[in-house]
Write a structure and sequence with these properties.
The chain is mostly helical. 70% of the residues lie in helices and 3% in strands. It has a two-stranded antiparallel ribbon.
């Protein structure tokens, strides 16, 4: 084979080799581009997922802090309202409140209206808190969740109709009473006081209490009042966990029971 032919064959081989290398490089470049694209997509997906999780955790934390802030803001007035109502329930059940201030007593009407006011005051603060936190998530183990559960238990006990007990107030009626108690002034929300309640009673509350008022003096309602009083004591204890305002003795919790003692301020007709 002459030298010229060898040179031609060698050139062709070199060209074929070059083309093969170029094709391989092109395929590798395409695979690398595809891989880079996949990595970029995965990176973007992971980044989006992490950002979403971060936003969700931040939103959950914000809701938790907001719920705790709302509870802190209304803790004291709700506890005071619950304490006032449980005190009156105790006096009715254990100290014959309506026996002492019966239909023949000159203060019978006052006894009825002040009792209705204490019930309405508690329902008012309950409605305020419900409105404030209805779109918030309660932390699993915080006081807010326990408070919400106790409020729900009280609502259900007042609304229950087992054995045709008197003093049944349906949940919608409870909310209506609470709504009527809400006062807004200068950007602040609170419950009306007794004087305002008394002045507005005939126009705003008499129809809502048309069944409740006579049922208060029915002895068949005492088990409901007793159960509500026990739940109210638990609610006060939850709102005041360190017992800074209301001692265990006042709430009847010192021995693990809920049995307020008359010599702790609950023996007087209040």
């Amino acid at each position: 084979m002459d030298t010229a032919l060898i040179s031609v064959i060698g050139g062709i081989a070199a060209t074929v080799a070059s083309v093969g290398v170029a094709l391989r490089e092109n395929r590798e470049a395409k695979r690398l581009a595809v891989l880079n694209g996949s990595l970029a997509d995965e990176s973007a997906r992971l980044s989006s997922a992490l950002e979403t999780e971060r936003d969700e955790r931040k939103a959950l934390l914000d809701r938790k802090l907001s719920a705790e802030d709302v509870l802190t803001r209304y803790r004291e007035p709700l506890a005071a309202a619950a304490m006032d109502l449980q005190s009156r329930c105790y006096n009715i059940v254990h100290l014959d409140f309506f026996g002492k201030f019966g239909s023949g007593h000159e203060r019978h009407d006052d006894a009825l209206v002040t009792t209705l006011f204490r019930l309405a005051q508690y329902l008012g603060w309950t409605e305020i808190l419900r409105r404030e936190v209805q779109y918030l998530s309660f932390p699993e183990e915080d006081d807010t969740r326990r408070v919400a559960q106790l409020q729900s238990d009280i609502t259900r006990r007042l609304a229950s109709s087992d054995a045709d007990e008197p003093l049944m107030i349906w949940a919608d009626e409870q909310r209506a009473i609470g709504e009527r108690m809400i006062v807004r002034d200068d950007g602040k929300t609170y419950c009306m006081g007794y004087a305002h309640f008394r002045d507005d009673y005939d126009a705003c509350f008499a129809a809502l209490f048309r069944r409740t008022r006579p049922d208060l003096t029915d002895t068949a309602a005492q088990q409901r009042l007793r159960d509500v009083q026990h739940l109210l004591c638990q609610l006060v204890a939850t709102l005041d966990p360190k017992h800074l305002r209301y001692s265990k003795e006042q709430l009847g919790l010192s021995d693990g029971c809920i049995r307020p003692s008359p010599n702790k301020g609950y023996g007087s007709a209040r």
